[in-house]
Design brief:
Blueprint lengths: L1 H24 L2 H7 L13 E4 L2 E5 L2 E5 L6 E5 L2 E5 L1 E5 L5 E10 L5 E9 L6 E9 L5 E9 L4 E10 L4 E2 L2 E2 L4 E11 L4 E11 L2 E12 L8 E2 L3 E5 L3 E5 L2 E6 L2 E10 L5 E9 L3 E18 L8 E21 L5 E10 L4 H4 L18 E11 L3 E12 L28 E10 L9 E12 L25 E12 L2 E2 L5 E16 L11 E15 L2 E4 L4 E13 L40 E13 L2 E12 L8 E2 L8 E2 L11 E10 L2 E9 L5 E12 L3 E10 L12 E13 L2 E10 L4 E12 L3 E10 L9 E10 L14
Antiparallel strand pairs: 1-4, 2-3, 3-6, 4-5, 5-7, 6-7, 7-8, 8-9, 9-10, 10-11, 11-14, 12-13, 14-15, 15-16, 17-20, 18-19, 18-48, 19-21, 20-21, 21-22, 22-23, 23-24, 24-25, 25-26, 26-27, 27-28, 28-29, 29-30, 30-32, 31-32, 32-33, 33-35, 34-35, 35-36, 36-37, 37-40, 38-39, 40-41, 41-42, 42-43, ...
Length: about 800
């Protein structure tokens, strides 16, 4: 019996690929797709239109034949039927066709066959060498097919594949397929059900099951198992994550994804999504009950025991959620809630996509933010109100010299009490609809309250007054209100010279609490400062067109005069610690990211950009600029982290009278290669910060990306300096057909360590992608130490991908 079944299996598979697949591959399939909606030619209900080489009629039976070239064409009641030979009963609407049969129903569904018999509405039919192709490219073929009703198709000796079965040379073997003795496509259940199903990869049988079902390919989202995630980690052992998607409605679903590990307890991951008329909510969380595991110096002898489990079992969990309510009108509301019980839970269990940009504000890498916010925006105004707190998963830089470990070998992390609670943070701006004195007027306002539990030193507080001993001191709380007005007008001369005079006025009011005694005065202080500026921007863009390229020169000069900035050393620097000087920020009056630091005095800023464009997608550009101020500003300097003498350095590039040089450029010699770079260079020619990246594509699927980033702003060497230098590489190269290699790596050039690396072999034919490889994670933040492992990544078209957020809600 089994031998007979195998023989029948081989016979019908050969017949399908040589017969039914041929109908899907022939050129007229594309023509049919373009004619899924029959043309309106005034054909009345019940009438029949026939176009054939020869026709005849006997009573109510019409027969038609082709001449071996164009097929017979018949249209009735919105349905189209094509074939070499065709018969149609006018009274019942029944039809039969043979030879290159193609049937197009009124709803656009297309089927192919060598022989077809159907009723008036194409809702009941019998087909031989049946084949149909879905919108997503999946194909379903069978030796015979019976359409039992409007919603049910029954197929015998069938093959389903989500992969292309045709190429330029005609039929091809699909890379993955499901073969079954019987298949039922139930459109009411939105499912395809198989009996005695065999899964094949490249034609080779790999799995058998007496029963199997998956969503109908026309369904965008349906309940079912997604592709599992398999990998190996020294801490967890072999890890298998099997996601199951449960669709509650078109606007709601659940994703249940347990991670089963051979060495530690399982981690249960859950995800819930719900979309309302004007709102959406996303909630994702995980839970486990397990001990710690990693590499720790448990004996205190300086030797780390690798991947040991110790301590009592504890409840460990995480929550990542966000929501948004966007009713009609100018207002929008939202929230994020992000917390984890362990600072290393994401690393230990390889939880993916944890640091997302959701909500009005977002934390950077390894920081979670919980917030509520409201926004109102119109054509002339904007206002936002928010409150948030932050959980840090970063290592404590004070322990960097000892690999961020304490005496017992445990990683030491930044305390959450070092970070402020922000409640509220208000930003607003308004512009009148018309011109004011011929120019544009913008009014801006900002207010914030910050509360800290722990006392922190530089760069938050001025290094000159930070005490050597801070134990027992309370965190400094601050409240700020800022009002600002800016007016700007544009003149363009007949020669093309662009002149923009501007006026800027700003006032800051501060209220400080819990100041330590060494900061002078009372523990509570109220401070104020003002800045008034006036200046002009002058630019003269030039363009020259040649036969080979367009050359564009854009010189810009800004001259401004302001009163000297009053930077009180007692004001905490909460929002201006990071500054990125680039082409746009160099010419702003407020070049800091926030309000706590402010520039004053007279200054001249000059720069220019040169651009060459050869054609669409091919160009090169370079910008160089610098700013000059009348006086130095030592308030922008802060303590060098590894200095024992209290030496200061300038992390901003603006403390000296001459700012850092800003160099920025891009180069795209073709639409397949893109590169860009940015650097700030101090007066001595040393690079302070730089970034560069190159992306390239060749062939149809080969690609590579290389990026480089360096920070040399700390002038002194030492274990605790903040300098860093990284190179990141990723790419894939196909070597033979659909087989290739993929590599990913991050190198820490400052420590001469490869922090992350992956090397794998892949197979990808645009339908079925699988990767096998080796990976190593050696990042310093990883509490469990370096981790070696293997990974398997699988992505199957139609059957659901691996990971979170599958499908689309509406």
């Amino acid at each position: 019996m089994q031998g007979d079944r195998d023989q029948r299996s081989k016979a019908f598979r050969a017949r399908l690929l040589a017969g039914a697949a041929l109908f899907v591959c022939v050129p007229f399939a594309g023509v049919a797709a373009a004619q899924t909606t029959p043309a309106s030619d005034g054909l009345p209900q019940g009438a029949v239109y026939v176009d054939a080489a020869s026709t005849s009629r006997t009573g109510d039976l019409i027969t038609a034949e082709s001449n071996g070239g164009d097929r017979v064409y018949l249209r009735a009641d919105g349905n189209v039927l094509r074939g070499d030979n065709l018969a149609y009963d006018l009274s019942s609407g029944a039809a039969s066709a043979s030879g290159r049969v193609e049937a197009v129903s009124a709803d656009g569904t297309i089927v192919y066959a060598s022989h077809l018999e159907t009723d008036r509405d194409l809702k009941a039919a019998i087909a031989v060498d049946f084949a149909t192709r879905f919108e997503n490219g999946a194909s379903l073929m069978a030796a015979t097919a019976v359409r039992r009703s409007e919603n049910v198709n029954e197929l015998n000796y069938a093959i389903f594949t989500p992969c292309p079965i045709c190429d330029a040379n005609g039929p091809k073997r699909p890379s993955i397929s499901i073969q079954a003795e019987k298949v039922v496509q139930d459109e009411a259940l939105r499912a395809v059900i198989y009996r005695n199903a065999i899964f094949r990869v490249g034609g080779v049988p790999v799995f058998y099951t007496p029963f199997f079902a998956h969503p109908d390919p026309t369904v965008k989202r349906a309940s079912g198992l997604l592709v599992p995630i398999i990998n190996y980690d020294e801490g967890r052992g072999v890890s298998i994550e099997a996601p199951y998607l449960h669709v509650v409605s078109p606007s709601e679903d659940w994703l249940i994804s347990p991670q089963i590990n051979t060495r530690v307890a399982p981690l249960l991951n859950l995800q819930w999504r719900r979309r309302f008329v004007n709102a959406s909510i996303f909630a994702r969380g995980g839970y486990t009950y397990e001990r710690n595991f990693g590499d720790f110096d448990l004996n205190g002898d300086g030797a780390y025991e690798s991947n040991v489990r110790f301590g009592d079992k504890e409840h460990r969990s995480y929550l990542l959620s966000h929501g948004e309510y966007d009713p009609d009108g100018p207002w929008r509301f939202g929230f994020t809630a992000e917390r984890t019980s362990d600072k290393t839970l994401f690393d230990r269990y390889d939880v993916r996509n944890t640091y997302q940009d959701n909500g009005l504000y977002y934390g950077d890498r390894r920081r979670l933010i919980s917030q509520i916010y409201a926004e109102r925006q119109t054509e002339q105004s904007y206002v936002s109100v928010a409150a948030f707190s932050i959980q840090s998963l970063r290592l404590d830089p004070a322990f960097e010299a000892n690999d961020f470990r304490d005496a017992s070998g445990f990683k030491v992390f930044e305390e959450d009490d070092d970070l402020p609670l922000v409640a509220p943070l208000i930003d607003a701006r308004w512009e009148p609809a018309g011109y004011v004195f011929g120019g544009r007027l913008r009014l801006k306002g900002s207010a914030v309250s910050l509360y800290r539990d722990n006392f922190v030193g530089t760069p938050i507080l001025n290094p000159d007054i930070v005490p050597a001993v801070t134990t027992g001191l309370s965190g400094v709380d601050s409240r700020r209100v800022t009002a600002q007005a800016e007016w700007r007008r544009t003149f363009i001369t007949g020669l093309g010279l662009r002149v923009e005079p501007f006026v800027d006025a700003r006032i800051d009011l501060y209220s400080l609490s819990d100041l330590p005694p060494m900061m002078g005065g009372d523990s509570d202080e109220s401070l104020s400062r003002t800045r008034f500026s006036a200046g002009v921007d002058v630019s003269y863009p030039l363009i020259k067109r040649t036969q080979r390229a367009d050359i564009i020169l854009e010189p810009v000069v800004q001259v401004s005069v302001s009163n000297k900035a009053d930077i009180d050393p007692r004001i905490p620097n909460e929002d201006s610690q990071v500054i990125e000087l680039d082409e746009s920020s160099l010419f702003r009056m407020d070049r800091f990211s926030g309000y706590d630091l402010v520039e004053g005095g007279s200054r001249v800023t000059a720069g220019g950009r040169a651009t060459v464009r050869w054609s669409e997608g091919r160009s090169a550009s370079l910008f160089i600029g610098r700013s000059y101020r009348a006086d130095d500003e030592d308030a922008f300097r802060t303590t060098v982290p590894d200095s024992t003498t209290g030496a200061l350095y300038d992390p901003t590039g603006l403390a000296s009278s001459a700012s850092d040089w800003v160099v920025q450029g891009s180069f795209s010699p073709s639409d397949r290669i893109r590169s860009w770079g940015h650097a700030t260079i101090d007066g001595s020619g040393d690079i302070r910060r730089a970034e560069a990246a190159v992306d390239g594509r060749w062939g149809r699927r080969n690609l590579a990306s290389v990026s480089y980033i360096v920070d040399r702003s700390n002038p002194l060497s030492g274990d605790q300096n903040r300098n860093y230098e990284f190179v990141q590489l990723s790419g894939q190269q196909f070597v033979y057909g659909d087989w290739g290699v993929a590599v990913t790596g991050i190198a820490d050039l400052e420590r001469n360590v490869i922090t992350r690396q992956e090397v794998g072999v892949l197979f990808d034919d645009d339908c079925f992608r699988v990767e096998f490889g080796y990976r190593r994670d050696n990042t310093r933040v990883r509490a469990s130490g370096p981790s070696d492992g293997v990974y398997i990544r699988l992505n199957l078209a139609t059957f659901g991908g691996s990971g979170y957020g599958q499908g689309e809600m509406r």
